[in-house]
Amino acid sequence: MKIQVFEIPQEGINLELEETPYLDNIKVTKPFRAILHIEKKGLEVFIKGIVSGEIELQCSRCLKEFKMPIKTTVEISYHPLEELKKEELIELKSDEMEVDFYRDGVIDTENIIRDQIFLSIPMKPLCSEECKGICPLCGVNLNEENCYCSSREIDPRLAILQTLLRRIKTNG
User: Fold this and answer.
1) CB atoms within 10 A of CB 59
2) Residue 52 and residue 34: Cα distance in Å, rounded?
3) Whole-model pTM above 0.85?
């Protein structure tokens, strides 16, 4: 949904939306619902609310697909893009990190939802904290079956430590 900034009333507006944004390489398994309150002060627009939905990710340990629910709060202030062009080089302070810009008096709610999804995805998604991953030798998913690989190769750079450990055990 596109919001016309100049049509936002002084008292603000409340919106309830349901959107399925397009995300590269990420499958949306449950449409995203957004409950937003939008206010305008001069040319600045403030948006607060909640975004929730569900996506499908791949576990970084076992490579299995899993569904991840997302529920996050939104608190963004928008400024006209033209305002940015007037300024040379600016440094954002920590309280200005939730700032975005709109162009031609229009804010697209799909962009808000998409940004919140990307911000909620962990760097290394896990199907569960207890995920055991896959065996590096045979490729078995250790969550589903046991691995019987007997040869555990030691990194050649650490082989000297194994020799030292054996000496300590025989002498000590």
Assistant:
1) 20
2) 7
3) no
